[in-house]
Amino acid sequence: MFSWLEKNPFFFTIAFLLVFSVAGIVEVLPDFTKSARPIEGLRPYSVLETAGKQVYIKEGCYACHSQLIRPFQAEVDRYGAYSLSGEYAYDRPFLWGSKRTGPDLHRVGDSRSTDWHSNHMWDPESVVPGSIMPAYKHLYKKNADFETAYAEAFTQKQVFNVPYDIEDGIKLGNMDEARKIYIQEAAQIVEDMKNADVKAAFEKGEVQEIVALIAYLNSLGQGRIAK
Amino acid sequence: MQQEAKMPVEYDYSIAKLFLYSMLIFGFIGMLIGVVLALQLAFPSLNYLAGEYSIFGRLRPLHTNGVIYGFTLSGIWAAWYYLGQRVLKITYYQHPFLKFIGLLHFWTYIALLVLAVISLFAGFTQSKEYAELIWPLDLLVVVVWVLWGISMFGSMGVRREQTIYISLWYFIATFTAIAVLYIFNNLAIPTYFIAQTGSIWHSISMYAGSNDAMVQWWWGHNAVAFVFTSGIIGIIYYFLPKESGQPIFSYKLTLFSFWSLMFVYIWAGGHHLIFSTVPDWIQTLASVFSVILILPSWGTAINMLLTMRGQWYQLKESPLIKFLVLASTFYMLATLEGSIQSIKSVNALAHFTDWIIGHVHDGVLGWVGFTIIAASYHMIPRIFKKEIYSKKIIEMQFWIMTIGIVLYFSSMWIAGITQGMMWRDVDMYGNLTYQFIDTVTKLHPYYVIRGVGGLMYLVGFIMFIYNVLMSIIASKPLQREPNYATPMAA
User: Staple A138 to which of B52, B115, B141, B233, CB 3.0 to 4.6 Å?
Assistant: First the structure.
């Protein structure tokens, strides 16, 4: 059979596809619907948090920070309760990372304050002496992208039935409504920050990338699960 | 008919040449960025070489994409456009359509790489590892891939040699598997088309959370399988027997290792998700299959090494044989290491640490890099009809690079295991012994050593580029094509 296949590239390719497909069918498919289910009470990201998540992705934060706490005593002690599949149901893409050059961030919102993040991103060594993380000063100068974040949240709702605009849930609304909420949420973050430029920009109605990023980081943890 | 049956006199290497050049350029860029990244971890102030555009998080995808898709794929395609004609007994001189497709393939690919570099620098990314490119570029990837498919299957369609040579089995596998995996992993919805607002480049994945992770590592691990492994095996299966003048040791072993590699490799992708939130049975399957993966991997490597049986003196005479034999050895090392890291208890320690980085680089620097370098040195005299400019440079390059790799993996092993041990260490009361930052500062010396190792490899690569260019420009012309050992000046 093999010598026949080696003379027929077409059937060779078919044979290859058959052999190759087994694993995907067995491993990936059966659990698909189950894994997509959110845990009870999980709320989707707000538009500001979504904008922050986009900053997180743009700057490649996932290259050094995982968002997956493994079920070991040491990890639970260090980072908080271990991660559950249903917590990631609204994460497109997933952001587990593959390398920890810095600590895990899956529950960082439970243990760090806005002010801490603000200092940390401006000058990491000011809060963690010896840190090898670069500073992200440019995030204090650029505006976060409201429109793209809104588009992402809207797509989540529209295409994937993510529960925005439900009773007691996160409100998305139309763009104007969403912008209002976006500014309100940003106001809380800005208030807790000390950076004068960010405050000045916010006075002018601008929301800087750092504000969105901090909103996202604050959301990582128990805060996203309704009590 | 008489005319038809005659062998083509002259092969057309114009496309192979182009891919050789891009292999040199993107190899240099990819490795240079790699060295910068390595040094940034040791000396963080290097993050600000070019403001926000040179911060680690932005450069890292450039490094991986540059090496995987710039360097390695160029190497694989240079080899395809060189050996494809030879093993199928065709020449592009007689098939202008295939030549046109090949050229189109190359230039679309270059356009893609340029766009990839620009967009990644600017921070446009999907964040899925080795699938970072934004959706319009993903579509361009598909075009490039289809063009390769047309070239490959088109060439097979007009072939004069009935049997498809082993190298092409592996190339077919690379082509087909990457096509399937890439498409499924990159299925995404551009948000602009749904919401009519925001950036047109932005999209979100079709899958969420654990599902996305499954699909991503089914892809991510098998990008290694079907670019770094099957593509490179395809290369070595042609160039080792050619350079050494020895037939492949065993056809049966070839068959066994090919078909079992194709079956087993995909199962192993889940080992990136051990102790994650995917179901236990998937983790266990992935772990078990990762250990089984040793058999086909070592099958290939042993087949290569035994091809040299009775011919070990060639190691002393030919630096190219040295490269190829060490490449096979590194392949054995890297696959053994990978299997060990997939055992659950080891994975608990190794995952998320630099040991994994070390493992990847054993494979890429030793196996992939060395195979492509040796293949290029073999091709150049035959393509340009010049002998290799300097054997001495190859020898020096070999040793500098080898020492570089040893420094690289040994420092990363120590760094990874150290960090893993420190993360889990508790005192007599059960409290964590170390702050996270302690586990970072501890690694500084190893990061420096890794930087030095990477730099040595880069220096070796620059010597390689120099030697290639000098061979083309200033070397002695060859009267006729050498059969086996590549001719080189002292």
Answer: B52
Nearest CA in chain A to B420: A100
With beta carbons less than 8 A apart as the criterion, state whether A148 and A222 touch: no
| Chain B CB contacts of A58 below 8 Å | 123-125
Residues 6+ apart with CB under 8 A from B399: none
Residue A204 CB contacts under 8 Å (≥ 6 apart), including other chains: none
> B180-191 pLDDT, tens per residue?
999 999 999 999
> The complex's ipTM?
0.94
Inform me whether the pLDDT recorded for B4 exceeds 80: no
Q: Can you give the pLDDT at residue B6?
A: 53
Taking CB atoms and an 8 Å limit, are A154 and B432 in contact across chains? no
Q: Identify the bridge partners of residue B190 per DSSP, sorted by sequence position.
A: B203
Closest CA to B13 of B324, B488, B382: B382
Cα B301 to Cα A77, B72, B115, B304, B358: the distances in Å are 44, 19, 37, 5, 20
Kindly determine whether residue A20 and residue B262, on different chains, have CB atoms separated by under 8 Å: yes
Contact across the interface for B353 and A136, Cβ inside 8 Å: no
**Residue from the list A36, A74, A135 with its beta carbon closest to the beta carbon of B208:** A36
Q: Do B165 and B87 contact (CB within 8 A), yes or no?
A: yes
Measured torsion, CA atoms of residues B246, B249, B251, B253, in degrees rounded to the nearest 10? -150
